[in-house]
Amino acid sequence: MSSLNNTNTEVLRFFLIGIPGLEKSHIWISIPFSSVYLLSPLGNCTILFFIKTEPSHHEPMYYFFSMLSISDLGLSLSSLTTTLGLFLFAVHEVYATACFAQEFCIHLFTLTEASVLSAMAF
């Protein structure tokens, strides 16, 4: 019987629903996400700028801070784009390849951040 069933399916897109029941409030929900999305890169770029321009900050501790800042920058840029697309622009679908790439980036930057914090501990 199983040899007769040759069904082959392939997932190409995922459909995002956001927060069920609050579809009319997605604009209001997007305001905190947008502010975090704007402030996080601004703060991390400010940290990187001060470490780069100030000669007294060219020490190993500040290099670790810059690595943490870069990993946090990558983490926020890779994770909040889909969320803002859903809440601000009502983009309810994401391609599977984009989802897997986003998942890879989130895990990569989280691993990088954990590795830098582990290196700072020793």
UniProtKB/TrEMBL annotation:
Q: Where is the G-protein coupled receptors family 1 profile domain?
A: 43-122
Which species does the entry assign this protein to? Crocuta crocuta (Spotted hyena)
Q: Which GO terms describe its cellular component?
A: plasma membrane
Which top-rank group of organisms is this from? Eukaryota
A Pfam family recorded for this sequence: 7tm_4
Could you tell me where this protein is found in the cell? Answer: Membrane
Named from the GO MF annotations, one term is: olfactory receptor activity
Gene name tied to this protein: Or51a7_2
Which sequence ranges are marked TM in the entry?
A: 27-51, 63-90
Give the UniProt keywords, A-Z: Membrane, Olfaction, Sensory transduction, Transducer, Transmembrane, Transmembrane helix
- Name listed for the protein in its UniProt record: O51A7 protein
Please give, as recorded in its UniProt entry, the membrane topology of this protein.
Multi-pass membrane protein
InterPro entries in UniProt: GPCR_Rhodpsn_7TM, Olfact_rcpt, OR51/52/56-like
Biological process annotations from GO = G protein-coupled receptor signaling pathway
